[in-house]
Each structure stands twice: as structure tokens, then as C-alpha cells.
Amino acid sequence: MLLPGQKAPDFHLVDQHKNKVSLESFRGKSLVLFFFPMAWTGTCTREMCTVQDDLSAYSKLNAAVAGVSVDTLYALKRFAEDHRLNFPLLSDFNKVAIRDYDVVHHDFSNGYKDVARRATFIIDRGGILRYAEVLPELGNFPDMKKIKSVLEEMA
Q1: pLDDT score for 107
Q2: pLDDT digit string (tens) for 78-137?
Q3: What is the CB neighbour count within 10 angstroms for residue 108?
Q4: Dist CA 65 CA 50 (whole Å)
Q5: d(Cα 118, Cα 151) in Å, to the nearest integer?
Q6: Is 91:71 a contact under the CB 8 Å cutoff?
């Protein structure tokens, strides 16, 4: 399990607009990575819409946000369009980032295997993990107040 104080694993993913995105892409800002199991599921939709509703608060704290799931970039593009999400949704279709961040959920539902656990990581400007929340149940919701509190302390 990744812990605060450790160097964040780098990642090389593609967003919903086919842009190549890595940890380095966010250099100069704090980054909040929201891992979520699958687009259009109830809690995932609520989580990503909550992030969208709070984008200005993250921006004021000099933080970028990104969602990460194993959905294809095409599914993530449609998901973003359907819910008017204006932040990067990163496709980890090959399941590399969920392994590197140790957030693999092996048995999802309907026989689907190896999706992202619901987890949130805050990475500082230097690439160090400052917060890690890996939720025990996929239906649990991230502690958004705590996430903003950590970002405020870092600002």
C-alpha cells in the first residue's frame, strides 16, 4: 500500500481527448487523483460530478484533478460529455496505474475483473504523496472535506 511521504508512481495514460498524460504533465501543481471503478455506475457518477462542481475550489488551491478508471478513452469521452465534466479522465485500460498505485479490485460485478478501487491520492508539486485514501467498499464515497483540508495545508 502506498503511504504519504512516498514518491508517487509515474503514470502514462491517455485522457478522453486522446492526449497523452503523465505525472509530469501536472508539474507545478498539486494533483488529486481520483481512481474510480467504472463510468456510469451510481457512486462513480456522483463522485465525478461532485469533483466537477468543486473545480473552482481545487483551482484556488493550485491543484489539478484527474479521474482514473479502466474504461476506454472513448467511454470516458462520452461519460464526460454526458455529465459535462471539464477535467481529465484518464484511461487505464491496460491496468498499469491501478497496479502501480495498489488499488486493484479483483472482482467487480457481473464477472468483471480488475477494476480500480475507489481511491484518492494527493500528490504535491515535487511528486510526493501527501494523502492516500483507499476505500474498503466500492460504494463508499471519498472524504472530500479531508481532501480539501490537506490541499489547504499544502498551499
Answers
A1: 81
A2: 999 999 999 999 999 999 999 999 999 988 777 778 999 999 999 999 999 999 999 998
A3: 17
A4: 12
A5: 19
A6: yes
Catalytic, out of 13, 39, 44, 123: 44
Pairing mode, strands 63-69 and 89-91: parallel
Whether residue 118 lies inside any domain: the answer is: yes
CATH classification at residue 59: 3.40.30.10
Is residue 92 assigned to a domain? yes
**Ramachandran class of 110: left when φ > 0, alpha when ψ lies in -120 to 50, beta otherwise:** left
Domain limits for position 110: 12-154
**Tally of domains in the chain:** 1
Q: What percent of the chain has pLDDT over 90?
A: 90
**Arithmetic mean of pLDDT over the chain:** 95
C-beta of residue 115 within 8 angstroms of C-beta of residue 108: yes
Q: Please state whether beta strands 20-22 and 119-123 pair in parallel, antiparallel, or not at all (unpaired).
A: unpaired
Secondary structure class of 140 (helix, strand, coil): coil
Active site residue 49: no
Residue 17: inside a domain, yes or no? yes
Q: Which residue has the cell 488529486?
A: 32
Helix (H, G, I), strand (E, B) or coil at 52: helix
Q: How far is CA 140 from CA 48, 95, 127, 137, in A?
A: 13, 22, 27, 5
